[in-house]
Each structure stands twice: as C-alpha cells, then as structure tokens.
C-alpha cells in the first residue's frame, strides 16, 4: 500500500500541500486573499525577527547561529498544519474477542458513527465559510474519536486484526486533518485539506469487508454531482448564435456536455471537471477537462460544463472516467479534489456513456 492518509471510509492520500489546479491546468493551488496574506506575512516577519528566524537563508534578529527557518516556516507557525498519527502511536485493539459473526455488524457500527460527520466536514471544507468549516471539523474529529475507541475496544478475528489496526491509524490521521480545520485561521485550511485524495476507498477497509462478508463501502458525497452527459459532436459556434467567446473557442472540437449540480455549501464562482478519455478496452488515451468560469452557482443549482476533445483522438465507443473536481468559493479559494478509479466507478451517468 502507498504512503499517505486514508479517509474514514476510504482512501489513502498523498500529502501534497501545493498541488496544481485540477481541471483548469494552471494557477497556484489556492488563490489567497491579498489583504489576509499581507497581514499573515507581516506577522510572520515580526515573529521571525523576534525569534531570530531566517529569511531566504539569512539570519535576522539576534544573529546567534541556530537552525535556520524560512518565511514559509514562520507562516506555518501562525496558520498551523495537520498533526497526524506517529509510527510510535499504539493502535492495538484490546478487550473481549469478537467472533466473526459479531465482527461484521460491530465494524459497521464503528464506522457509521462518524461517517456523516466526516461527510459534512468534507463538504464544509469546500464552502469558504470559516466558522462553518471550523464547526464541522470539530464535530468530525469528535465523531472519529468515537470510531477509534469502538474499533479498539474489542479484539478481532485473526484474519482481520491487522486491517483493523491500519484502519484505526488511518482514522487518527484523518482526525488530525479535521482538527486542523477546526482550528483554522483562514479558509486555505479547507482548500489544503481537499487537495488530499479523500475520494478513494481504503484497501484495508475493502479487505476487511471482504473477509467479514460486508457490503462495499459507502462513497462520500462529492461537492459536484454529475447529472447527465451528452456527446454533442463537433462544435460549430456559428450555429449557436449567442456570441459567447468561450464557446467560440470550442469550434472544431468534439464536445461532451456535462450537467452538474452543486453541493458546495456556498456560491461557487468557478467549477472544473477533469476526465480520462478511455478507449473501448479501458486504455487512457488523453486527459481532458472542462471549466465553467465567472459564474454564481448556489448549492442545489445546476450548470453545464463543456468538455472539448481532440477530434483526432475521440473515437466512437470511447468513454470518460472522472479524475478530478475543482470549485472556487468564499474569498476565491480553490478546492481541488482527485477522484480515484474506485470512486469514479460510482458515478452512474458515466458508467454507460460512450461517444457516438
């Protein structure tokens, strides 16, 4: 299994704090509010000077030689960062041993007690509402405490005991990110958290469910719900008649029109979708994306995203697999989300879609 963090129901993530924008292909991972960043930078410099920190490798302050720190390190002292589980932390289950017949329902009870709170926090992270994000993060962290305690309050059948230990550790990692959100000083904490690959299933969870005869894990709610997908063929702006410059740029491209409904708990000002264009045999031919900009999309409202394909690559019978989502909200903070293959297969409108 790869390195990273798993979500409570799901996936191991890579801690990539500065990933580029999903879908839109350019720009920084987050567009920070300029006034807020000036204040943060000023505080960082003031703290750095007082402590003899280093800026750009040069010491300022007392002049005494010590471990050098850059401006970004000083900023992290202000905004914080997630505290995840240490390799020395003990996640050994103790207590009376569960039978295999008891273990399945007990496991479901353990994970279900935090599933909704985690789901709420994941959506709140995309909304740009700092108080709501803090509250949801705190509630999720408390619920995860209960899940971990339940998992470790009994010993498990030998065939799943290692999986339970890994799952408990993964929950502890996730709890660190929820606490990070709960104590956030700005909305970037939500954007940084959603860069993690929350939308994938845990191998340990899937393994345990298979051994105990449980149903597949329930996927968490994505902030953008794909409602329909239509191949409209090669686009010709002259027949559209609305004079939209963005649509004019699509002329000559094979276009797939995707309708999405927003679940972002705020007004989204830009949304992006990233897909893999896949051959009839499942081979990825190209990575494609569509973006809808300069919008005001409230929760529950729908929007159309046109996804252009190169006509020379787009062939009849090919399909699309969702690879990523992005939404901007709040003070223009970007929230970028990778979608793993196992989660992508739960997007029903794409499962039977094929190019004409």
UniProtKB/TrEMBL annotation:
**According to the UniProt entry, which residue ranges have a biased composition of type Gly residues?**
1-11
The UniProt keywords, alphabetically, are: Membrane, Transmembrane, Transmembrane helix
Q: Where is this region: Disordered?
A: 1-31
Q: Does the keyword Membrane apply?
A: yes
TM regions (residue ranges): 38-60
Would the keyword Membrane turn up in this protein's UniProt record?
yes
Taxonomic superkingdom = Bacteria
What's the protein here called?
Answer: Secreted protein
UniProt source species: Bifidobacterium saimiriisciurei
The upper taxonomy is:
Bacteria, Bacillati, Actinomycetota, Actinomycetes, Bifidobacteriales
